[in-house]
Amino acid sequence: MRPGPGTWVNDRTRPNIHFAFPSSFSSSTAWVARSVPPPSLPPSHPNGAHRSSIALFLLQNALVNAQGNLATFPATPLASKHFAYPTGLPYQADSEQLIRGTQTGYNICNSTTENQHSLCQTSFLNALDATAPHVVHCTRFADFCLWAPINPNSTIPDTEGEEVAWCTKPGRGTRLIPAGALKGVQFMRTPDYIQAVGFIDQSLINIQTGDFGGELDPHGADLRGNPLGGLVYSTAWSGNNDSFTQVIEWHNFMGGDAFCFKVCDPSRPNAANFCQHIYDRIGCAYNAPNNAQNGTFEACAGENQDFPGIYTVNGAVLTYTQPPEALGVITTLPYQPRVPASSNCVPFESAALFTALATVTPSGSAVPSASGSSAVGARSSSLGTGTGTGSAQNANQTQDNGGVIMMSGLFSLSGFILCALLLS
Length: 424
Known about the structure:
Number of strands: 20
Helix content: under 10%
Strand order of the largest sheet: 10-13-14-9-8-15-18
């Protein structure tokens, strides 16, 4: 059940990429394929109220009913599961057999799983050297991952439940992003989150050319996340390069030869607001406003953005409500997001960013599921929280004219690497 074409909006006067995903990708898509009616969440979801009611609801839905039908919701949502890295990782964060199938890959990843066929679903986005917060450290800026498909020529809508980690640094047990894939990157560190926005030849990480993709996040329509069981860690807030914090709230938009990946500080009160997951149809420009430019590699300090969906008109603070997909493609929005101010930007040369990855092949081939049962058709969009995704028409206009996206820390200097550039 492939989504129909959507609309790609690119305003060349500002370096932000706008996604408007197709209307035909509805909340019932993933459920219709299995002849099971779409579930409904309590009225309080996803605003966080009445948590005890939600917990009871999820527990009830996690049980197999008397007719033997598979349940939809897990006993514990992915975003409520906590695992220490690396010693506390389970083989699979999502071990339940539910309507979307089982987790495709695994979370315990090491040298035995590190290759271009890896099914590792533990990802990373690291920041400045934690031991020297005002210094751009060479190794830290070569250490981040993106979620992308297992098999070549895949689309995000068809595979979002089974994406695996593709990383810039060996040693994590993952697939590696091939040299030359990244075309421009802006890394931004703010008081509440870090984000990486960038341009990429997505065919080199198995995303079909022309696919304008969608959002990956730890929630999804059934609260199992996209990908199922996908975990994210960072050293950005630990004060130690070898001490990893589990990121509870994050979002990663992939597609259109662009990406943005934001992870929010779990110790801060607004992590869920800055890493909102209900605006899956309006892309990077509205979820992670930035000034990334194609062909430019830089690392910056920045101020916080407004919460996604929140904007101000004539002094009045307003909230945007994403329309139901049944109303059609989103072609206009009532506001332009404020791009946060940045400072202390440090440029990097693009040559030899991946000297350690020079021999990495562009893409992996089909491999069997780690659990023997993949999340077939795992497109759990909607219910207000999922991933609305799809290809878009007239999309090739985005190349080389500064569209905006985000990316984590990936900045080495051609084999030589700038190891001590001050940001202050």
